[in-house]
Amino acid sequence: MIPDEDAKRLYQVCQGKYPGYLNSDEPLKTQWYRGVGSHFWKNQHPGACERHMSVFNRFKVIPEYCFSCYKVFIEPRTVVELFKLMMVFEKMRLLNDNTRKCIVECREQVPGTYKGFVYCTGRDEGASMQKSIRKAVSEKISEKVPVTLKRGCSEYALAYPEYAKTDENVVAMEYKEYWRKYEFYADNIMKYDKGRSIIETHNSPGYTLQDTRIMFAWLSYAAMIGDPSYLKISDTLLPVTSNIKRPYPFNPVNE
After folding, report:
1. What is the mean pLDDT of each successive set of 10 residues along the chain, which is 255 residues long?
2. Alpha helices, DSSP H, located in the chain
3. Most buried pick, 36, 181, 204, 247, via CB within 10 A?
4. What is the C-alpha separation between 30 and 207, in angstroms, rounded?
5. What 3-state DSSP class applies to 64?
């Protein structure tokens, strides 16, 4: 198991390495990534996830590409466990260097607080990855941390509950052919910048200035929702960050 002290030490080291990490007018980001960038996923559209979500937001249709998108979904119960999941992801070596990320949930319509994802192509890869991720999480964090298989984005499942079903004994929802005309139309009228967010890899030789700012945002989020475990890392009371919101209450963890 990763000791709590290791998570605290990591944050302290990053603070020491980047003493001016809060000296910026840029809003704090809350999503931490490792692995290959989304533009380089197999058979990806030039606009990647930005394009797919734009199609959905405009026409409420799920793009065809997203029907093969599966994610291993990890739900840390505290911000300390979120830090530990980040540490696991940082050291993880996957054959396809699958995109993996840790976040705090800020979308008003989506439940939950702390989350981790490993992106997979197809259900088979997702099911196989789920087993290996569950093993790593059980060994390094806790056997009580849920590790499940999820399909696509939460916004899709809210609009189409059938899309979210991942049980192998259930017939999965399929792409509706008449949606293709909306995708074609959208690609001819939408003005997203195909090159703005092209990142070949999120990997780095260590934790960066941006990573440090994200860690602080997570701790501030924990303070806001009433998760006292953040004090195990910060050692001090933190103010609420104005651009981070969470309407769902925090449920205390009983070990």
Report:
1. 98 97 91 95 89 94 96 98 98 96 91 96 95 98 97 95 88 94 89 65 95 96 93 90 67 70
2. 4-17, 48-59, 79-91, 123-140, 154-159, 180-189, 209-225, 231-234
3. 36
4. 15
5. helix
Tokens of 110: 């989506």
Element (H, E) at 117: strand 114-121
**Residue 56 burial class via C-beta count within 10 angstroms: exposed 0-12, middle 13-18, buried 19 and up:** buried
For residue 148, count other CB atoms closer than 10 A to its CB.
Answer: 13
Handedness of CA 134, 137, 143, 145 (dihedral sign): negative
CA distance 118 to 130: 9
Buried b (16+ CB within 10 A) or exposed e, 1-18: ebebeebbebbeebeeeb
**Residue 247 in tokens:** 């309407």
Tokens 């290959």 belong to residue: 36
Instruction: Return the amino acid letter for 137.
Output: V
**Locate tokens 């981790």: which residue?**
116
In angstroms, rounded to a whole number, what is the distance separating the alpha carbons of residues 79 and 104? 9
Q: Is 52 helix (H, G, I), strand (E, B) or coil?
A: helix
Percentages of the chain per state (helix, strand, coil), in multiples of 5: 45, 10, 45
pLDDT per position as a tens digit, 186-241: 888 876 655 556 789 999 999 999 999 999 999 999 999 999 999 999 999 987 76
Sequence letter at residue 157: A
DSSP, res 145: S
d(CA 61, CA 159): 9
Report residue 115 as tokens.
């989350």
- Sign of the Cα pseudo-torsion (8, 11, 17, 22, in order): negative
